[in-house]
Amino acid sequence: xxxxxxxxxxxxxxxxxPNPEVEVVLVEVIGSKHSPTIRVYIDTEGGVxxxxxxxxxxxxNEVVERIDPFPGAYTLEVSSPGIDRPLRTPEHFMRFVxxxxxxxxxxxxxxxxxxxxxxxxxxxxAVILAVDGQRxxxxxxxxxxxxxxxxxxFSS
Length: 156
Known about the structure:
alpha+beta, SH3 type barrels
């Protein structure tokens, strides 16, 4: 799911988190090789507000500067995971059992590489989604990217 550089940054950030209530959800490196953007998603049980983002920006910046993952300039963003929260670990899937998720596979299954369904279960090896009325197991080793399918209720 993550590149070697993303994994290196993620591990360093996880080790440096000053507050045990803060979770480093995901690290993404996007954009050009000459001026990439490092996007760090953080979360807490109660969600992420301005104070959490401001506090995290400081220690995240220190860790990334120490690692110095890219020669030259890069942009650093610290963000909430948002409504389409990334799912990276078995624990993420376990926490969101009953929610809708979108998976993108590395190797297509039956001609499809993208599946949307309800998370029914997860363990260390795979996640089980209810897709098109069927229970389907997806090994974590074949999941390229995954996120919750955010829904907004406008009826309230």
